[in-house]
């Protein structure tokens, strides 16, 4: 069952996703060598609650924390811990909130200090693949058009697309229909109508596409131990254009001050 949103509901989703955008920027201020991922989690939780929202991930399916923090070869769903970030790490920070009954969900991969040119290129291609996917999120197009665009961009850089996890519809629930794969063929999948709100979230690997899950039951890592990057936007499908409900501008402001 796919729920199309009214304009009023989209504005509520915009507010939720704007809070996530600001939370990720707040976390960005503290990302440096030596900070633990658990400290980042505390910063995010306090920021979310002080803005009248609740963390969407905490308790979701038993997940213990506010953020998913996934370092280097961790693809997604990393659990915050006493691991202290090291110079040269990349860390995907995924954050969800519930504000006024609507969910915001976004992710960004940060560099810790100076990172290798290889990791920088992976992050750049992953972010660009997200942008390519967003350009397809238009009324009348199909979900497969998004996956095709993401996959084409990622593979043009020599990277592989994770298949085991996908994007999703977003609304009062964090994971609504439809699934939004980051791979696919043009003109396939369900047709997207005005009012559909989805999260597009490419998970792109430097090496093989295969993944496995650690014994903690959550952390997804690459099968070959090579790095992975992840960015996520919430997007409302409109006639003729995609309406991105997330912004990385707050993050950019923080990173430019460094
Ligand atoms: Mg998501
Ligand atoms: Mg997310």
Write the layout of secondary structure elements.
Elements: H1 7-28, H2 37-50, E1 54-55, E2 67-71, E3 74-76, E4 90-99, E5 102-111, H3 117-135, H4 143-156, E6 160-161, E7 167-169, E8 176-180, E9 197-200, E10 203-205, E11 211-213, E12 220-222, E13 228-230, E14 233-237, E15 242-244, H5 249-256
Antiparallel strand pairs: 1-4, 2-4, 3-12, 4-5, 6-10, 7-8, 7-9, 9-14, 10-13, 11-12, 14-15
Task: Explain what this protein looks like in three dimensions.
This protein is an alpha+beta fold. The chain has one domain (7-257): Creatinase/methionine aminopeptidase superfamily (Creatine Amidinohydrolase, Alpha-Beta Complex). Helix content is 30%, strand content 25%. The protein is built from five helices and 15 strands. The chain has helices at residues 7-28, 37-50, 117-135, 143-156, 249-256; strands at 54-55, 67-71, 74-76, 90-99, 102-111, 160-161, 167-169, 176-180, 197-200, 203-205, 211-213, 220-222, 228-230, 233-237, 242-244. The strands form four sheets. It has a five-stranded antiparallel beta sheet with strand order 8-7-9-14-15. Strands 1, 2, 4 and 5 form a four-stranded antiparallel beta sheet that branches. Strands 3-12-11 form a three-stranded antiparallel beta sheet, with no helix packed on it. β7 (167-169) and β8 (176-180) form a beta hairpin. α1 packs across α2 (37-50), α1 runs parallel beside α5 and α3 runs antiparallel to α4 (143-156). The chain is globular, with a radius of gyration of 17 Å. The mean pLDDT is 98. The site of one magnesium ion (MG) has 6 residues, from β4 and β5. Residues 105, 168, 199, 201, 232 line the site of one magnesium ion.
């Amino acid at each position: 069952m796919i729920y199309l949103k009214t304009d009023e509901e989209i504005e509520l989703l915009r507010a939720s996703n704007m809070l996530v955008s600001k939370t990720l920027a707040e976390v960005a201020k503290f990302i440096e060598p030596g900070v633990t991922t658990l400290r980042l989690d505390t910063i995010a939780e306090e920021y979310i609650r002080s803005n009248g929202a609740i963390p969407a991930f905490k308790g979701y399916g038993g997940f213990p924390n506010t953020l998913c923090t996934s370092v280097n070869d961790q693809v997604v769903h990393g659990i915050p811990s006493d691991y202290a970030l090291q110079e040269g790490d990349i860390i995907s920070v995924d954050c969800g909130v519930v504000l006024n009954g609507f969910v915001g969900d976004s992710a960004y991969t940060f560099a810790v200090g100076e990172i290798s040119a290889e990791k920088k290129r992976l992050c750049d291609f992953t972010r660009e693949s997200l942008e390519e996917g967003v350009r397809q999120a238009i009324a009348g197009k199909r979900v497969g058009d998004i996956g095709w665009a993401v996959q084409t961009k990622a593979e043009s850089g020599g990277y592989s697309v994770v298949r085991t996890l996908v994007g999703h519809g977003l609304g009062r629930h964090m994971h609504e229909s439809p699934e939004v794969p980051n791979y696919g063929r043009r003109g396939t999948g369900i047709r997207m109508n005005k009012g559909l709100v989805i999260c597009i979230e490419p998970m792109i690997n430097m090496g093989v596409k295969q993944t496995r899950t650690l014994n903690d039951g959550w952390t997804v890592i690459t099968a070959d131990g090579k790095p992975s990057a992840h960015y996520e936007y919430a997007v409302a499908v409109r006639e003729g254009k995609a309406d991105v409900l997330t912004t990385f501008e707050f993050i950019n402001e923080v990173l430019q001050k460094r």
